[in-house]
Amino acid sequence: MVEKLVMFENAVETLGYFSRQLAAYFERKGYRTYFIDYERLDGCMKKVKRFINTETTALLTFNFIGLSREDYCMEDDGRSVWETRNLKCYCIMVDHPLYYYKELCRTTENLVTFCVDRSHVKYMHRFFPKIPCYFLPLAGNLLPEDIGKEQITKIAYKEREYDIAFIGNYVPLPDMATHFRGQTQEYIDFYNEIFTDLRRNPRQLLDETLERFILREVPEATEAEVASAQAGLLFLDLYIRTFYREQVVRSLVDSGLKVHVFGKGWDSLQCASPKNLILNGGLIDSADCVRVIQNTKVALNVMPWFKDGAHDRIFTAMLNGAISLTDDSKYLNEILSEGENVVFYHLENMTELVEKARLLLSEEDASEEYTKEAYLFAKENHTWEKRAAQLEEFF
Which string of DSSP letters, residue by residue, matches 308-349? Predict the structure, then answer.
């Protein structure tokens, strides 16, 4: 029976923020939590060893933090502190499992994994069937002081400063060309062919697309060889995500709509109407992201190639009184209702995106009604406290 949880903070800021919101639920339910602080690792590891009780303690982490054979958690016998103490380990992967291919190949005993996209779960069941894996979508963020409150809207919808806001970094595609250096032209042509295919049909799954091209070149490839080759082509995921992030923002600003961007690199975006791209500094932390959304009417989202999952930006918008304008997915189409609590656009139709954004800004009364329905739905179903309750079932 799990009574104590070890978690992490200050490794990846966003993931630490998620963890703290999960912990708010667990602590209220009587669990004891201990956070390993990446800014004070030495002192933390001494304390965590005293905190651990094999029978009642579990590790809860994201993206294999603490499970990647980091030096600080390794014992003299070559095993991790979690292995020597036989801890149950729960790991939530917020990206495609291909990002953690090496870690997954080095199966950790007592490991249970979760994916934020149902197609990722299918990938896990196929290529890593010995590792238990379940679907756990991302959730919306709140400010710490707003957790548990009945209503958290602080700025009335019509009084919000930002008509359209997008939070996230931008890296121009030419700056990502390091992946092509040192490669033969044959390989470069192969990469570009896959990239073009993904652009031509943005509804297809990344791993299935990669597999199709791999098997075209090596028809006799085994399951293990396919998975290994997919991991080697993972950089194409970053390319296609960047391409559409660029397309979406450029389409809006070049149509005359002002878009406030929060994140690094946007001063490098090439567009016809740069005056409509409002730069608001570099990277901001998760709490400031929430504050931006609380002052935004239309929260723009571009999914990170989750074709059967959701992103926290969507639910964060819904929980904080903004309209989520996002590309869709199979999962989102099942749980959300167009025109009631969300507005969908499609990556293959930038004209539709612009028209819907313009309509939302021109019909503020109707848009404000969307936000009310969205808030009620997200509060009931898509907070981190709801996710913690789902995780608790596994304990």
Answer: SB--HHHHHHHHTT-EEEEE--HHHHHH--BTTTBEEEBTTB
Question: What domains are defined for the chain?
Answer: 4-136 (3.40.50), 144-171+238-382 (3.40.50.2000), 180-234 (no CATH)
User: What are the backbone angles phi and psi of residue 360, rounded to the nearest 5°?
Assistant: -60, -40
Residue whose token pair is 């054979």:
69
Closest CA to 246 of 148, 166, 177: 166
pLDDT in tens, 369-389: 999 999 999 999 999 999 999
162 within 8 A of 292, measured Cβ to Cβ = yes
Q: What's the pLDDT score for residue 77?
A: 92
- Dist CA 274 CA 262 (whole Å): 15
235-252 residue pLDDT tens: 999 999 999 999 999 999
Helix axes 206-217, 223-232, angle to 10 degrees: 110
- Look up the pTM and report it: 0.96
